[in-house]
Amino acid sequence: MRVQSVLVLIAIYRLVGAFYANEWVVRVLGGVQIARQLADELNYDLVRQVLGFDDTYIYSHSSQPSIGKRSNTNLTLRLCDDSRVEWAEQQTWRRRDKRGLLDDKIQSRRHLFGSVGFFNDELWEHQWYMQDTRTEPGLPRLDLKVIPVYLKGITGRNVRVVVLDDGLEFQHTDLYPNYDPEISHDLNDGDPDPTPRYSSITPNNHGTRCAGEIAMVANNKKCGVGIAFNAKIGGIRMLDGQGGSAMDRIEGEALNFALDKVDIYSASWGPTDDGVTVEGPGRLAQEALERGVRKGRGGKGVIYVWASGNGGSKDDCSCDGYTSSIFTLSVGSASEQGQFPWYGELCPSTLASTYSSGAYSDQMIATTDLHNSCTVKHTGTSAAAPIAAGIIALVLEVNPKLTWRDVQHLVVWTADMTPLAYNEGWIVNAAGLHVNRRFGFGLMDALALTKAAANWTTVPPWKHCTIPLNCTSLDISRREESKSSEKSPTKLLQIFNKCGKI
Ligand SMILES: [Ca+2]
Ligand SMILES: [Ca+2]
Ligand SMILES: [Ca+2]
Ligand SMILES: [Ca+2]
């Protein structure tokens, strides 16, 4: 019975898109004593502080079910009405989709090209995007130009990359030598071990696949070669919440986890790509992204690499506030034919692209898989973003002084439109650069990027201008007024600022 009701809840959740948790995130200034006192007085339980956030605590309430389809407005208002509370929000589980495509839709094709035998790894010959494997000059050149970078001894050493996803099988023998426990964690179960939950229903292989693309060990005859095969790799398990969901608190903790150690965060997920969902980072996730670029890497800013989405023509990546955020470096994909793939989304925030899967018969991406196995079937913009993260790890090894903005500028200036030139949509922007809403400024070019990075003059810091708005005459909707008729519009506005739309 219990299992059945959970399944029903998950089914409803899939329809309505959000579920309310018995969890309030509350910002209370003045220290944990005051936060505890407040919880005691108002009859909440103080669970713990939110990881990485000062003055921010998790409260729960004994009257609230662990998951429900309605918010508990009264419990939120009780917190917001207290002068010690800066803001409070009941946490909701929101669906976050991984940006790979289902295996069963796709059939792998025997690769067309011969191997150059550069590495002895069993999947090296399937890593078509890392080498120029043309057997005839008439075939398209499929090459992110990493080998010339390796030949200079640049392999991602001393760069720490973390994959935010459904877990990381860190004991995988093609990952373990590069595994970095200091930047890894399990936010779904609240423990330091990010190993995914093995399930026959949900293949939680996505994080392990993304991590392998970045940091598989080279020349060990196992699986393939990571783009930055000497980088350190971590995993945050954070996508395995209720029915494949996350909440703002978990996303915020993930985006700032080990902020003093991580160089690059790679995320291949986001709001559902169904063409009707418009969502972005919540309060904590937004705060985390901004803190990441201001405080990470000793003030130079961490790099957030983000997959642009798999919704195809029915969706638009501008409706995804994670990938369209200025703080994320958004990556699209191109197929092995140099085509815009059927799942690709158009929007102006995509900065560049890397290779990934395309039409059903096109080759896909080779990487690590669960149970110490390997796959040649990683797909979608899920596979494109970690390749970009690996290339950026090479760039940061060349020049660790680069800021997050330098990296974005470098990607824009060095991306190559030539391999993608036959697609529609290219325009020349006011700066004289070719740009396309399908691909950004072109295909990432590891050689051009690392060369430009070596001699780069840092760009000015980010400037953010705000205009103060006088809100006293704001009209509050009649619905809100009638619901809380005893409250003045000014009071309602205060509540809105403290509690959001409740
Ligand atoms: Ca765990
Ligand atoms: Ca290997
Ligand atoms: Ca989308
Ligand atoms: Ca972005």
From TrEMBL:
It is an enzyme of class 3 (hydrolase). Its EC number is 3.4.21.75. The active site is at D165, H206, S382. Residues 156-442 form the Peptidase S8/S53 domain. Keywords: Cleavage on pair of basic residues, Glycoprotein, Hydrolase, Protease, Serine protease, Signal, Zymogen. GO terms for biological process: peptide hormone processing. The keyword Kinase does not apply. GO terms for cellular component: extracellular space; membrane; neuron projection. It comes from the Eukaryota. Gene3D superfamilies: Peptidase S8, pro-domain, Peptidase S8/S53 domain. The keyword ATP-binding does not apply. Residues 23-99 form the Peptidase S8 pro-domain domain. Transmembrane segments: none annotated. It catalyses: Release of mature proteins from their proproteins by cleavage of -Arg-Xaa-Yaa-Arg-|-Zaa- bonds, where Xaa can be any amino acid and Yaa is Arg or Lys. Releases albumin, complement component C3 and von Willebrand factor from their respective precursors. One of its GO terms (molecular function) is serine-type endopeptidase activity. Belongs to the peptidase S8 family. Furin subfamily. This is furin. It comes from Cloeon dipterum. The lineage of its organism: Eukaryota, Metazoa, Ecdysozoa, Arthropoda, Hexapoda.
